[in-house]
Amino acid sequence: MDGTFSAMLPRFRLPALLSVLGLIAVLAGCARHETAVESGTRDQILHFGNRDEPADLDPHTNNSGTTSTILSSLFEGLVSHAKDGETILPGVAERWEISPDGLTYTFHLRADAKWSNGDPITAQDFRDSFLRVLDPSLGCEQANQAFPIVGAKDFLEGRSKDPNSVGVQAPDAHTFITILSHPAPYWLSILAQNGPLYPLNRRSVEAAGGWHQRGGTWTRPGALVGNGPFLLAEWRPNAVIRVVRNPLYWDAAHVRLHEIRFYPMEDEASEERAFRAGQLHLTYRMPQSKVAVYEQEHPEELQIAPDLRTSYLTFNVTRPPFTDPRVRRAFSLAVNREQLVKATFGKLASPADAFVRPGTGGYTAAAGFPFDPAEARRLLAEAGFPGGTGLPTVEFTLNGNAGVTLLLASALQAMWVQNLGVHVSVLPCEFKVYLSTLREKQFMLLLDSWGYGIDDPRDPLELATTGDPNNDSAWNKRDYDGAFAVADATLVPAERRAAFDTMNALLAREVPYAPLFHANQGFLLHPSVRGWQSNRLRVIDWRELWLEPSK
Amino acid sequence: MLRFIARRLLETIPVLLIIITATFFMIRFVPGGPFTAEKAVTPEILRNLEAHYGLNQPLYRQYLDYLGSLLHGDLGPSFKYPNRTVNEIIGDKLPVSLELGFISLSVALALGLTLGVLAAIRRNTWIDYVCSSAAMIGICVPTFVLGPLLVLTFAIHFGWFNASGWYTPIDRVLPCLTLGCVYAAYIARLTRGGMLEVLNQDYIRTARAKGASETRVIFRHALRGGLLPVVSFLGPAIAGILTGSFVIETIFQIPGLGREFVNSAFNRDYTLVLGTVILYATLIIGLNLVVDVVQVWLNPKLKFE
Known about the structure:
The complex is a heterodimer.
Chain A: H1 3-28, H2 36-43, E1 45-49, H3 65-74, E2 79-81, E3 88-90, E4 93-98, E5 104-109, H4 123-133, H5 152-156, E6 168-172, E7 175-179, H6 187-192, H7 202-207, E8 230-236, E9 240-245, E10 259-263, H8 268-276, H9 291-297, E11 302-315, H10 325-333, H11 337-343, E12 349-351, H12 373-382, E13 394-399, H13 403-420, E14 424-429, H14 431-439, E15 445-451, H15 458-461, H16 478-489, H17 493-510, E16 513-524, E17 529-530, E18 546-547
Parallel strand pairs in A: 1-10, 13-14, 13-15
Antiparallel strand pairs in A: 2-3, 4-5, 5-7, 6-7, 8-9, 9-10, 11-15, 11-16, 12-16, 17-18
Helix pairs in contact in A: 10-12, 16-17
Chain B: H1 2-29, H2 43-52, H3 59-71, H4 86-121, H5 126-140, H6 143-157, H7 173-199, H8 202-209, H9 214-226, H10 228-243, H11 246-251, H12 257-267, H13 270-298
Helix pairs in contact in B: 1-13, 4-5, 4-7, 4-10, 4-13, 5-7, 6-7, 7-9, 7-10, 8-9, 10-13, 12-13
């Protein structure tokens, strides 16, 4: 070998070295190592696939469901949901009284409730926090959750500057009172859900920015002061959020998990592979194509449960041809929902015959959206478009161009051509473009969906009330608004149900929205996770969970 | 050479300014904003949010403010992640992307150069066919197929690695191999082509005639010229390996900047879009300059002008 060749060597040394190192690493790894799930199960560390990276961990500015799950481990409200997602359990409030008119709720806070920095939790903390949510300068996107409180809307919208005009009172350190403007039978559910009404420790927030300021650094590990069963230990953006048991939590004795690690998993296929490789105890969702595989091979790992999300068509009632309710009904009657679900989501959806998912808040609406092509054709002809002639091309706007969305759209397209003879052109839009299209009412027909904030029919039904910011159809009906107000104001369950019936009947007759299906949660759960109960709200009572190797 | 570099660096300033201006206005004219969310908020809340971030100011004012803070090296707060600044996000994520990029690049060079040189010096033998076919397959198989295939085999079937994540050194193997293989394929083809062209040159024949050993001919004389196409490919490729690893970062859940870059556009996170664009523009300009310098050094026919 001559000298010049060895002089050339340094140029190749680095890659050569790295490939050798790589080889060693491969060989060193050539033993099936203990998986995270195996070691986690032994050490009570739950590995939790949680879809999205949280934007922040401030409950008052959060608007994401997956972040709510993390927040529910760090904070606790006045009351909380049991693992069935329905029963209301005491939280920081150990008991409460409701006045006979249903307007005044008096909460008695437990004396041993503490913040994770050792401060006692007082009624003043709750009052300050509720007012923070309603403060116009914070810009809380879910502030409407607090609207049942007297004066809340006026305060948020700047018509009143006086905090005392808002119906939240703290007569002493352990008594907190909310005064509502109308009896809202769902008020405790709002307080219990992982929503914006958690208390915050004012001292910790003010130490890292203003009390009314978004984006303070108090939500970082070490600075975040919570009152939930767990404490924030680590937050590596886009990698992991680690929470550990909070010894100061009033019910710490019942918390069995030592640690939870939340992993943002943007891609559902990657999440499923991570589950299969033993990195996750549970996933947030799963690819539809894998449902049949798991049913066959690992039915014990597959979880399918109803979700509080409904997918529907939105008709722009201000633009022809959908100004005519007959055309809207015809489009709805021409859809075979059973077939549609079978061809697209399979078990991850249930065909919808009403706008509200059956059983929501204990209420089931009468079926009002059947499949009847003959009636559909008759109505279309009656509206002046026999066999679809004379009907302008309908533009069907979609949210995104994911495979299943396009599949759904083309199935609908085919049903409308076949049953009505009308041609529909599909227009997939990027998410934010889609949102601005619908907010500006620049569409004819949309494929949309709504996730319910609370387990109560009023939540989805509010979408059709006049002037609601999410009423994309722009439909307005005085009778409907009247029934909605009655449902909110009455304390008599039968009256409330009757009001819901009225609203549902109006929706079925006028069809501003045509429900297609209700979504189901489909996810994977390792058998070592004990005490799990899937529920519609996706709430978790962390005290109920523990890990134990499956036999 | 110093004058050449200085001149090129000066030219960078107007180029960057144009890129910043174009990006600033283009992202603003896209429908939807940072606060357009699935659940619509009342107009009052939206107004308050916009006021908080100064989005209620006239656009030219926001532009000048942005340039002003940019001069101080401040890329502003992120809209999507309110408790983080863009500087922080880049500082956090760039090292991850750099690590992914440089290991992958080393894999790519080691594999690609070896295959390419082997194929060229054993032209039209089975070695050449095997190397060339491997390269062709590498070019044809996209990362979103290769990545999951490697995961299925080595993470799920054999259980040697994690299927995703970026926690321990062993987690680097699969993503870097996936990304490296694709670039290795290109490098192998370019090396083979470059080498073949050079091996037919007169000066190689001269070297052989003067009795130089084959090793000396290949490594001392041929490789220097044969690498030229690879070097010009590497400039944009390095930038690409750092910016374009969105797919790899998503498949393997790697907390890198490639994902932030793509997602910031979807989130209309104006400041993060601008921050990443500025960073990548600088990177591409810088790497092209390096490539130009290296090329002159490798090819005596070129001069700095």
